[in-house]
Amino acid sequence: EVSTDEPEMAFCTLANREELNPEEGSIHHCLYQFTRNETLTETNKLLCDVCTQRHCGPKNNIKSEKKYVYTNAKKQMLISLAPPILTLHLKRFQHAGFILRKVNRHIKFPEVIDLAPFCTAKCKNVAEGNTKVLYALYGVVEHSGTMRSGHYTAYVKMRAMNNHLSDLVLRGQSQALETEPVKGQWFHISDTHVQPVSVSKVLSSQAYLLFYERLL
Fold this sequence. Notes:
Blueprint: H1 27-34, E1 38-40, E2 46-47, H2 49-56, H3 59-65, E3 70-71, E4 73-75, E5 85-89, E6 93-96, E7 99-102, E8 112-114, E9 134-145, E10 150-159, H4 163-171, E11 184-190, E12 193-197, H5 199-203, E13 207-214
């Protein structure tokens, strides 16, 4: 979504992202890098309709003269609508010349994550005054192997129904804020094999996909 209203708020977030100081190799660092402020210059300059009109006059003359004006700009991608279910897909491949390699590095991820530093200051479905947008982990997909072959397994949390999430999904209503992850038992699933595991086992996995549910 491209927003043109209140430009002074364009780069403001619900919580101060500069206080994060995220640890490298963590999901917070990934999100921080993905939503960082970028400067568009040189060949990446932005076509400015206002500047073009000032230079060329009325719009009906622009196409004929083709004197488009490009200008330096700033760009930042932030969350404008906090989803009931948050899915994070980690890029686990890299190019080494003409070779495509899998990235096996462990990325740290928490049981509860706060998206507020990555949300716009006027996030549409966050109550005014809230400075936290919390999500609890309930599923992880892990891949073992190489780019050519491998095996997918999953960690899933069996827990009681989240009434807060149901209200958010079915009626668009958010209730009181919870700060603790939903209690439940984690299971590791590999084809037809299912076994209970500890949360420490889950958090040490080489995550490929992360699934969080909103705690509001």
